[in-house]
């Protein structure tokens, strides 16, 4: 079983420290000056006029990611080799980073980058093209695709077919958000965070024209008028 140490911030009056549990006790590591204002930089960014409402707050995301990590750890407990987690760039980078740090099974992290031809506004065309492939050899391995959102289904359908051809032991999917009203192709989701309505969402990795990816919550965007 993997036991990751969990450092926490301690405020010692004049000195802010990082507390790192170790076998023989606890290390206190002083935090350099620019990080002392950590608390204010962790403040929740306010909604901008582009954003209508927070759909899923940071705490609910954290709790759901905890649940999914527990489920995944249980299901892959007997995996003969470390599970390959494949993050689909760019949108999944925060979900992947959070979920992999909560797993207590051996795993490795890999990435793939795709693009879609003929993108018109927010519509996926179905012509998925690979921009950057994974590095791990998937033959005989358990592969878990980690995606931020399932919309039309074209991306996951492409990935499942592409990875299955590499003769893995298994291919499964972990998806943070699903928009069931938008499906064009049926895709099996093995681990789902939240179902959401057909609205454009941003935050926690998801963007609109590269904006808002690093918001700690999922927010609904105001529809963009031309
Ligand atoms: O189910 P689908 O209709 O295929 O849509 C889902 C995909 O679309 C988004 O990626 P996008 O192409 O916007 O790239 P990004 O992750 O870099 O933002 C999202 O991150 C999924 O990968």
Automatic annotation (TrEMBL):
GO MF entry, a single one: nucleotide binding
InterPro entries xref list: HGPRT, Hxn_phspho_trans, PRTase-like, PRTase_dom
One Pfam match: Pribosyltran
Catalytic reactions of this protein: IMP + diphosphate = hypoxanthine + 5-phospho-alpha-D-ribose 1-diphosphate; GMP + diphosphate = guanine + 5-phospho-alpha-D-ribose 1-diphosphate
Domain of life: Bacteria
Family per similarity comment: Belongs to the purine/pyrimidine phosphoribosyltransferase family.
Name of this chain's protein: Hypoxanthine phosphoribosyltransferase
